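anyone seen this seq b4? input:
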Amino acid sequence: MGGAKNLSVSLIPNVLSLQMEMKRISFVALAVVTLVVFVASSIWYSPFLFGRQFLELSGATANAHPSPVNALFEFLRTFVLAFVIAHLLLRLNVAHWKQAVGLGLWLWVGFPVILLTGSILWQNVPWQLAAIHSGDWLIKLILIPLGIAVWPKRASA
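predicted toks r here
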């Protein structure tokens, strides 16, 4: 019983360790990676790639001028995702680009693939629509850890 208590406490980051991790994360790197992923995702859902299929399969309507508020919230969502992955990279001591890509693949299989297959099974989401979303998530979950892993590290103080 005591072991389970110690394990649960060790999984909850304390304020001091979070402050130390925050000093090791480059917010410039996070901003750049977020921007790159935001643009890549926008291209993914554009008419150049899968935009038409997405609209057809989802029943959504195209808007010539997307809402700036929605775009801002999507950018912030992507930043939070990058921030969480950066912390995960630090916690797992991932420093090499191959490790980062591997982690991204595992995250992709473990989360969006599992969630999207559930939506196919239980919500009758067309598999093609789930595949479009899954591809977008694959790009995000490869580019974010890769970008953070290859970004030049800060010198230790």
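The mean pLDDT is 88. The helical segments are 2-11, 15-24, 27-44, 51-58, 68-91, 97-123, 127-150. kinda curious what u guys think
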